[in-house]
Structures are given as structure tokens and as C-alpha cells.
Amino acid sequence: xxxxxxxxxxxxxxxxxxxxxxxxxxxxxxxxxxxxxxxxxxxxxxxxxxxxxxxxxxxxxxxxxxxxxxxxxxxxxxxxxxxxxxxxxxxxxxxxxxxxxxxxxxxxxxxxxxxxxxxxxxxxxxxxxxxxxxxxxxxxxxxxxxxxxxxxxxxxxxxxxxxxxxxxxxxxxxxxxxxxxxxxxxxxxxxxxxxxxxxxxxxxxxxxxxxxxxxxxxxxxxxxxxxxxxxxxxxxxxxxxxxxxxxxxxxxxxxxxxxxxxxxxxxxxxxxxxxxxxxxxxxxxxxxxxxxxxxxxxxxxxxxxxxx
Length: 308
What we know:
The protein is an alpha/beta fold. It has helices spanning about 45-50, 75-80, 95-105, 110-120, 135-150, 165-180, 195-200, 220-225, 270-280, 295-305, and strands at about 5-15, 20-30, 35, 60-65, 65-70, 80-85, 155-160, 185-190, 205-210, 210-215, 230-235, 250, 260-265, 285-295. The chain has a 6-stranded mixed β-sheet, with helices on both faces. The protein starts with a strand and ends with a helix.
């Protein structure tokens, strides 16, 4: 089955000489959640704007549902719902009217049942007759998503969907995204919250300086690039790591009571068994030990740093 969004050799440059996108290739499958990660100025917004037909590409091709976003703009845009980072709502409009108006923009007839379904989907039905200015920030962001879903798109772009909301509302938003996926909506989100991508994404795409560095299944990525650490709590603190242990990738915590051994979990041999034996030979005795996996944030920072 062809990808629902296909980006091939996409370039975008400006008269100033800035090349915002450099031969970007990216395929997004129907029904998945893709998190687009990158530092400020990496090209995330330019990429989304080009896919949505807001920005014209310099070269390359983008298709959405098989429709070219330049030559068949209306058909491609009809499949897309876009939620920008900035909340822009008419303050004196009611919630239900706001969502209904968005259907009209795409030439769809007014259908009370369709509007009700979207509002219930986002837990907004009880607020249907409230003015948007009366809503909390989290509720206003939900209205933005409802507007984007009003014309029943197959693809939803979320640009920083939880920016400026507290942790509890952020987790509520994650649950909304999961439910949308369960209903068959393909979701592409940009986020500065690495935990957000780790919590809800199926695949991770990392972009920096206009180039896609990788696109990979989240679990596979963390297993392939993530390192593990073995924390060894010593019975007696030490001032420094013994010279006979210099061949190991060891760090000593400030209090001298814990050694941290970094190893590749995917390697055929981790070296842990030999390390524990050599610790005893060096006169160090372990009271307790535990392991921790690199987070997605650490992997992301390392990737961006390597390409800076």
C-alpha cells in the first residue's frame, strides 16, 4: 500500500540564500503517529507548511493520498487537518459555531451530527454553547483540534500540540491523540517535549539544518542507539577509580559510593561479568546494582550534536 504522505527529494530555498529543506525524503504510512523532532530552525515548520500546501517547494515532490500538493492542491488539502502552534479563535464565537464554520471552509454542508461527533470526541460537547474566550487554555487548544477535524480529514498535523499547557493537560492531550489514531487518523506532530514523542509516537523522524537525520520505529531506535548504564553501589566509598579498571567505561559519582558502567545492550557481550570479577580483584565490593536505559531525549541530543 502506498504511503499516505510521500515526500521525495524536497528542497525549499529563499531569495536570501537560506536553504530551509535539503532534499528531504519521508514516507508516512496511514494510521501511524510520527513525531518530528528537531531544534529551533531545523526545518520542521517549513516541512509541514510545504506538505500542507502553504509553502511552495523549490524542487521535489509531495503527494498526499496520491494527490500532488502543488498541481492538485484542493484534493490534497481536503485530506489534511492542521493545528498550528498559535491558538487563533474568534473570541465571541461559540464553540459549536466555530467548528461548524470550519466545515464550510472546505465546502461541506452543515451537519449537526458531524459537529456533535467531533465535539464529543474531544470532550467539548458540554462547552458547545460557550464563547471561546470563556474557555481555559487547554480547552481552547481542543477547539483548535476540533476545527482541524471538522471536515473529517484522514491526516492531522499537530504543531507543538501541548505547548504552554500543564502536565495534566498534556497527558489528556496524549490520550486524545491515541484515540484519534484508534479511529484511523494518521498523525504527524512536532514537539519540544521529548517525553511526548516517547509516550505516543510509533516512529521518530529527526530533522536538523534542513536534513532528515533518521526515520525509525521508536522502539527499534531506542534499542539500536540507546546505551545502558549499570549503577554499582559500593559497600565503602572510594576516592578514585583503581588503575586496574581503567579499560572499562566507568564513572565515579561525586560521593564516591557509586560506579557507573556504560555498555551497549545490543552487543554480543556486555562485559558485566568480567567487570564484577575485576572489581573484586581490585578490592571493591558491591552492595547493590541497577540498570537504566538511555532516554529518547539523550539519543536526540546526541544525534543533533553529532551533526551540528
